[in-house]
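> example.struct
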């Protein structure tokens, strides 16, 4: 099973490299929105605004990036993949690939914010940990939602409609915790929140693992 998951990850990396204009488009979106924020605020920005802008930009970049998760398996190719690998192996492999994909986007966005909007983060390590947890949670939810969208005709509006309500609990916890990383982070105080974020990601992954097989079969 592990070897099959790794093959799915390698296949997605190969396909993404052949169509690398998609990730370049996402990175261009991140760059332009961050630069626009720099121009609007003229380098003078509060911690709350810095934090809110970061998560808004990252969420829409993540939805845009994860939407393409199952484009290569749409239509009749679903049947081909169904005969080659178990559906649960496929969704786990896709989720792992999307985790690293979104992590790269999140770290690049963080670096651009530090460069253009100023380093106002009191604890960069804590913020990076939150980006890792956010990438894991977003990947689990968005991969499953992308699979639903692909089976429903690959409607580009469907991932955004379905994912925003599902992402809301994570985004709320992330935004409230990350503002503390900007102003002063206590690992002992915020440890339970980090654990909750990790559990949310694991629960999302478990639901994808259990439910995707029924979605794939229809």
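> example.seq
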């Amino acid at each position: 099973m592990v070897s099959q998951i790794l093959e799915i990850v390698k296949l997605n990396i190969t396909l993404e490299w052949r169509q690398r204009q998609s990730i370049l488009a996402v990175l261009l979106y991140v760059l332009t929105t961050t630069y626009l924020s720099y121009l609007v605020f003229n380098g003078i920005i509060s911690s709350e605004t810095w934090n809110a802008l970061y998560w808004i930009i990252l969420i829409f970049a993540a939805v845009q990036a994860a939407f393409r998760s199952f484009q290569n398996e749409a239509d009749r190719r679903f049947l081909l993949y169904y005969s080659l690998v178990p559906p649960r192996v496929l969704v786990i492999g896709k989720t792992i690939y999307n985790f690293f994909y979104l992590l790269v986007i999140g770290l690049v966005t963080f670096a651009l914010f530090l460069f253009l909007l100023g380093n106002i983060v009191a604890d960069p390590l804590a913020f990076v940990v939150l980006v890792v947890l956010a990438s894991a949670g977003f990947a689990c939810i968005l991969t499953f939602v992308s699979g639903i969208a692909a089976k429903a005709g690959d409607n580009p509006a469907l991932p955004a409609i379905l994912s925003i309500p599902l992402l809301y609990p994570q985004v709320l916890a992330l935004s409230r915790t990350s503002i503390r990383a900007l102003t002063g982070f206590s690992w002992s105080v915020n440890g339970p929140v980090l654990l909750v974020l990790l559990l949310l990601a694991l629960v999302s992954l478990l639901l994808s693992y259990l439910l995707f097989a029924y979605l794939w079969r229809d």
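> remarks
The first helix runs from residue 2 to 18.
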